[in-house]
Design goal:
Blueprint: E1 4-10, E2 15-17, H1 18-22, H2 26-35, E3 44-48, H3 56-72, H4 76-80, E4 90-94, E5 97-103, H5 104-109, H6 116-119, H7 122-145, E6 164-170, E7 179-184, E8 190-194, E9 200-203, E10 209-212, E11 219-224, H8 226-231, E12 241-244, E13 250-257, H9 264-275, H10 280-283
Parallel strand pairs: 1-10, 2-3
Antiparallel strand pairs: 3-11, 4-5, 5-6, 6-13, 7-12, 8-11, 8-13, 9-10, 9-12
Helix pairs in contact: 3-7
Protein backbone atom coordinates (compact mmCIF):
# COMPACT_ATOMS: atom_id res chain seq x y z
CA UNK A 1 0.00 0.00 0.00
CA UNK A 2 1.29 3.47 -0.85
CA UNK A 3 2.05 5.66 2.12
CA UNK A 4 -0.09 8.77 2.32
CA UNK A 5 0.37 12.23 3.77
CA UNK A 6 -1.82 13.03 6.76
CA UNK A 7 -3.81 16.21 6.13
CA UNK A 8 -3.29 19.24 8.40
CA UNK A 9 -1.00 17.31 10.73
CA UNK A 10 2.64 18.04 11.44
CA UNK A 11 5.33 15.90 13.01
CA UNK A 12 6.51 16.85 16.48
CA UNK A 13 10.26 17.29 16.90
CA UNK A 14 12.28 18.21 19.96
CA UNK A 15 13.77 21.71 19.83
CA UNK A 16 17.44 21.67 20.87
CA UNK A 17 19.12 24.97 21.75
CA UNK A 18 22.56 25.20 20.15
CA UNK A 19 23.83 27.90 22.54
CA UNK A 20 23.08 25.59 25.47
CA UNK A 21 24.84 22.71 23.68
CA UNK A 22 27.84 24.93 23.03
CA UNK A 23 27.90 25.82 26.72
CA UNK A 24 27.77 22.08 27.54
CA UNK A 25 24.61 22.28 29.63
CA UNK A 26 23.98 18.66 30.75
CA UNK A 27 20.18 18.75 30.43
CA UNK A 28 20.31 20.01 26.83
CA UNK A 29 22.98 17.47 25.88
CA UNK A 30 20.79 14.73 27.33
CA UNK A 31 17.81 15.96 25.26
CA UNK A 32 19.93 15.95 22.08
CA UNK A 33 21.19 12.44 22.80
CA UNK A 34 17.65 11.21 23.45
CA UNK A 35 16.36 12.74 20.19
CA UNK A 36 19.10 10.94 18.22
CA UNK A 37 18.40 7.43 19.49
CA UNK A 38 15.92 4.78 18.27
CA UNK A 39 14.15 4.39 21.61
CA UNK A 40 12.13 7.48 22.37
CA UNK A 41 13.74 9.63 19.71
CA UNK A 42 13.31 10.03 15.96
CA UNK A 43 16.92 10.59 14.92
CA UNK A 44 15.99 14.13 13.93
CA UNK A 45 15.33 17.35 15.78
CA UNK A 46 15.02 21.10 15.45
CA UNK A 47 18.24 22.93 16.25
CA UNK A 48 17.58 26.48 17.44
CA UNK A 49 20.41 28.62 16.07
CA UNK A 50 19.35 31.98 17.43
CA UNK A 51 22.55 33.37 18.88
CA UNK A 52 25.25 35.96 18.12
CA UNK A 53 27.22 33.80 15.66
CA UNK A 54 25.10 30.78 14.69
CA UNK A 55 22.17 33.09 14.02
CA UNK A 56 24.06 34.74 11.17
CA UNK A 57 23.53 31.62 9.07
CA UNK A 58 19.75 32.13 9.17
CA UNK A 59 20.04 35.47 7.37
CA UNK A 60 22.85 34.23 5.11
CA UNK A 61 20.67 31.35 3.91
CA UNK A 62 18.15 33.84 2.51
CA UNK A 63 20.90 35.58 0.56
CA UNK A 64 22.17 32.26 -0.78
CA UNK A 65 18.67 31.35 -1.97
CA UNK A 66 18.52 34.56 -4.01
CA UNK A 67 21.86 33.90 -5.69
CA UNK A 68 21.01 30.24 -6.26
CA UNK A 69 17.74 31.28 -7.89
CA UNK A 70 19.66 33.27 -10.51
CA UNK A 71 21.88 30.27 -11.24
CA UNK A 72 18.99 27.81 -11.49
CA UNK A 73 17.19 30.25 -13.81
CA UNK A 74 20.05 29.98 -16.34
CA UNK A 75 19.85 27.77 -19.41
CA UNK A 76 20.42 24.04 -19.08
CA UNK A 77 23.60 24.33 -21.15
CA UNK A 78 25.09 26.87 -18.73
CA UNK A 79 24.19 24.80 -15.70
CA UNK A 80 25.55 21.59 -17.24
CA UNK A 81 29.00 23.19 -17.41
CA UNK A 82 29.13 22.63 -13.66
CA UNK A 83 28.11 18.96 -13.81
CA UNK A 84 30.85 16.61 -12.56
CA UNK A 85 30.37 13.01 -13.60
CA UNK A 86 31.10 10.68 -10.68
CA UNK A 87 31.41 13.48 -8.10
CA UNK A 88 28.98 14.67 -5.45
CA UNK A 89 29.61 18.39 -5.92
CA UNK A 90 28.61 20.63 -8.80
CA UNK A 91 25.28 20.75 -10.61
CA UNK A 92 22.84 17.88 -10.92
CA UNK A 93 19.17 17.51 -11.80
CA UNK A 94 16.76 14.90 -10.46
CA UNK A 95 13.33 15.23 -12.00
CA UNK A 96 11.62 18.10 -10.21
CA UNK A 97 14.72 19.01 -8.17
CA UNK A 98 17.93 20.77 -9.21
CA UNK A 99 20.96 20.86 -6.93
CA UNK A 100 24.25 22.74 -6.80
CA UNK A 101 26.66 21.35 -4.22
CA UNK A 102 29.69 23.27 -2.96
CA UNK A 103 32.54 21.07 -1.75
CA UNK A 104 33.90 22.36 1.54
CA UNK A 105 37.44 21.11 0.83
CA UNK A 106 37.58 22.94 -2.51
CA UNK A 107 36.38 26.16 -0.93
CA UNK A 108 39.03 25.89 1.80
CA UNK A 109 41.95 25.04 -0.52
CA UNK A 110 41.03 27.63 -3.15
CA UNK A 111 40.29 25.23 -6.02
CA UNK A 112 36.53 25.85 -6.10
CA UNK A 113 35.01 27.22 -9.31
CA UNK A 114 31.65 28.86 -8.72
CA UNK A 115 29.06 30.10 -11.22
CA UNK A 116 29.12 33.88 -11.65
CA UNK A 117 25.94 34.36 -9.63
CA UNK A 118 27.51 32.58 -6.65
CA UNK A 119 30.90 34.24 -7.11
CA UNK A 120 29.18 37.52 -6.22
CA UNK A 121 28.40 36.17 -2.74
CA UNK A 122 31.52 34.02 -2.25
CA UNK A 123 32.50 35.85 0.94
CA UNK A 124 29.07 35.15 2.39
CA UNK A 125 29.32 31.50 1.34
CA UNK A 126 32.69 31.21 3.08
CA UNK A 127 31.30 32.76 6.26
CA UNK A 128 28.24 30.52 6.16
CA UNK A 129 30.32 27.38 5.60
CA UNK A 130 32.75 28.23 8.36
CA UNK A 131 29.98 28.71 10.93
CA UNK A 132 27.78 25.78 9.91
CA UNK A 133 30.78 23.44 9.73
CA UNK A 134 31.63 24.28 13.34
CA UNK A 135 28.00 23.79 14.39
CA UNK A 136 27.78 20.43 12.58
CA UNK A 137 30.96 19.09 14.14
CA UNK A 138 29.89 20.26 17.61
CA UNK A 139 26.59 18.40 17.28
CA UNK A 140 28.28 15.32 15.76
CA UNK A 141 30.82 15.14 18.57
CA UNK A 142 28.16 15.54 21.26
CA UNK A 143 25.92 12.87 19.74
CA UNK A 144 28.83 10.47 19.18
CA UNK A 145 30.01 10.93 22.75
CA UNK A 146 26.54 10.50 24.22
CA UNK A 147 26.46 6.71 23.92
CA UNK A 148 28.37 4.23 26.04
CA UNK A 149 30.92 3.36 24.87
CA UNK A 150 31.35 6.47 22.69
CA UNK A 151 31.86 5.92 18.97
CA UNK A 152 35.21 6.50 17.28
CA UNK A 153 34.94 9.92 15.66
CA UNK A 154 35.58 9.79 11.91
CA UNK A 155 36.01 13.40 10.88
CA UNK A 156 37.87 16.54 11.86
CA UNK A 157 38.06 19.83 10.01
CA UNK A 158 41.64 19.16 8.81
CA UNK A 159 40.91 15.74 7.24
CA UNK A 160 39.71 15.57 3.62
CA UNK A 161 36.12 14.47 3.01
CA UNK A 162 33.26 15.12 0.61
CA UNK A 163 31.42 17.28 3.13
CA UNK A 164 29.45 19.92 1.27
CA UNK A 165 26.75 22.58 1.15
CA UNK A 166 23.82 21.84 -1.13
CA UNK A 167 21.66 24.58 -2.59
CA UNK A 168 18.54 23.00 -4.03
CA UNK A 169 15.53 24.15 -6.01
CA UNK A 170 12.22 22.30 -5.95
CA UNK A 171 10.74 23.33 -9.29
CA UNK A 172 7.32 25.05 -9.21
CA UNK A 173 5.93 22.81 -11.98
CA UNK A 174 5.52 19.87 -9.58
CA UNK A 175 2.03 19.73 -8.11
CA UNK A 176 1.74 20.28 -4.38
CA UNK A 177 2.26 17.08 -2.38
CA UNK A 178 4.05 15.16 -5.15
CA UNK A 179 6.92 13.07 -3.80
CA UNK A 180 10.04 14.60 -5.36
CA UNK A 181 12.62 12.66 -3.32
CA UNK A 182 11.47 9.15 -2.29
CA UNK A 183 11.85 7.65 1.16
CA UNK A 184 15.52 7.32 2.11
CA UNK A 185 18.14 7.92 4.79
CA UNK A 186 21.15 10.20 4.32
CA UNK A 187 24.47 8.45 3.80
CA UNK A 188 26.66 10.84 5.77
CA UNK A 189 27.17 11.59 9.45
CA UNK A 190 24.84 14.51 10.03
CA UNK A 191 22.62 16.80 7.94
CA UNK A 192 21.48 20.30 8.86
CA UNK A 193 18.60 21.54 6.71
CA UNK A 194 17.50 25.16 6.19
CA UNK A 195 14.05 25.62 4.65
CA UNK A 196 11.11 28.01 4.87
CA UNK A 197 8.05 26.03 3.75
CA UNK A 198 6.94 22.51 4.73
CA UNK A 199 8.48 20.02 2.31
CA UNK A 200 10.24 17.43 4.52
CA UNK A 201 8.12 14.47 5.64
CA UNK A 202 8.65 11.67 8.16
CA UNK A 203 6.59 8.48 8.61
CA UNK A 204 4.13 8.04 11.46
CA UNK A 205 5.17 4.97 13.45
CA UNK A 206 2.91 1.97 13.00
CA UNK A 207 0.84 3.55 10.21
CA UNK A 208 1.01 4.12 6.47
CA UNK A 209 0.93 7.89 6.90
CA UNK A 210 3.58 10.60 6.55
CA UNK A 211 3.61 13.94 8.31
CA UNK A 212 5.18 17.18 7.21
CA UNK A 213 7.85 18.82 9.37
CA UNK A 214 6.73 22.43 9.68
CA UNK A 215 9.68 24.84 9.94
CA UNK A 216 10.31 26.23 13.41
CA UNK A 217 11.30 29.89 13.78
CA UNK A 218 15.03 30.39 14.19
CA UNK A 219 15.72 26.69 13.76
CA UNK A 220 17.02 24.19 11.23
CA UNK A 221 16.29 20.47 11.11
CA UNK A 222 19.18 18.22 12.10
CA UNK A 223 19.29 14.48 11.54
CA UNK A 224 21.62 11.53 11.91
CA UNK A 225 23.05 9.89 8.77
CA UNK A 226 23.80 6.27 7.84
CA UNK A 227 27.49 6.58 8.65
CA UNK A 228 26.76 7.69 12.20
CA UNK A 229 24.10 5.02 12.73
CA UNK A 230 26.41 2.28 11.49
CA UNK A 231 29.41 3.47 13.52
CA UNK A 232 27.17 3.42 16.60
CA UNK A 233 26.08 -0.15 15.75
CA UNK A 234 22.46 0.97 15.67
CA UNK A 235 22.47 2.86 18.95
CA UNK A 236 21.80 6.06 17.00
CA UNK A 237 19.04 6.34 14.40
CA UNK A 238 19.29 7.56 10.80
CA UNK A 239 15.66 8.52 10.16
CA UNK A 240 13.75 7.59 7.04
CA UNK A 241 12.35 10.71 5.39
CA UNK A 242 11.15 11.96 2.03
CA UNK A 243 10.44 15.25 0.29
CA UNK A 244 7.22 16.49 -1.23
CA UNK A 245 6.69 19.47 -3.49
CA UNK A 246 5.26 22.61 -1.90
CA UNK A 247 2.94 24.89 -3.82
CA UNK A 248 4.98 27.16 -6.09
CA UNK A 249 8.33 25.45 -5.48
CA UNK A 250 11.01 26.46 -2.96
CA UNK A 251 14.72 26.77 -2.27
CA UNK A 252 16.57 24.99 0.52
CA UNK A 253 20.13 24.80 1.82
CA UNK A 254 21.59 21.72 3.47
CA UNK A 255 24.96 21.08 5.05
CA UNK A 256 26.01 17.45 4.80
CA UNK A 257 28.79 16.42 7.17
CA UNK A 258 30.42 13.28 5.79
CA UNK A 259 33.17 10.94 7.07
CA UNK A 260 36.81 11.63 6.34
CA UNK A 261 38.11 9.67 3.34
CA UNK A 262 39.53 6.24 4.15
CA UNK A 263 37.73 5.82 7.45
CA UNK A 264 35.76 2.71 8.32
CA UNK A 265 32.51 4.70 8.16
CA UNK A 266 33.16 5.66 4.55
CA UNK A 267 33.83 2.06 3.50
CA UNK A 268 30.82 0.64 5.35
CA UNK A 269 28.35 3.16 3.97
CA UNK A 270 29.62 2.81 0.39
CA UNK A 271 29.17 -0.97 0.62
CA UNK A 272 25.73 -0.47 2.12
CA UNK A 273 24.66 1.80 -0.76
CA UNK A 274 26.11 -0.58 -3.37
CA UNK A 275 24.14 -3.52 -1.97
CA UNK A 276 20.93 -1.48 -2.12
CA UNK A 277 21.74 -0.37 -5.70
CA UNK A 278 21.28 3.29 -4.81
CA UNK A 279 22.45 6.03 -7.11
CA UNK A 280 24.88 8.18 -5.09
CA UNK A 281 23.53 11.33 -6.74
CA UNK A 282 19.98 10.42 -5.72
CA UNK A 283 20.68 9.69 -2.08
CA UNK A 284 22.76 12.84 -1.76
CA UNK A 285 19.72 15.05 -2.26
CA UNK A 286 19.51 17.39 0.74
CA UNK A 287 16.79 15.66 2.20
Amino acid sequence: MALTTASKAYAHLEVINYEKIKNKEPAEIQRLAHASKPKGGRGLFFLDLRGPIAGRTLADAQSLYQSAAKFFDASTDKKQRFYKDGFDDGFSAHGDVEVFEIARDELVNGSLKLPVDLQLVEDRIRDFLSIIDTISRDIYHIIGSSIDPPIQLTTTSDLPSDTGLQLAWARPEAHEGKVIAPAHTDRGLLTLLYYDVPTLEVPVDGTDEWRLVKPSEGSVVGYVGDALQRSSEGRLLAPVHRVVAPQGGTYVAAYLLRPAFGTESTVLVNLYLAKRCFSPKLVLLWL
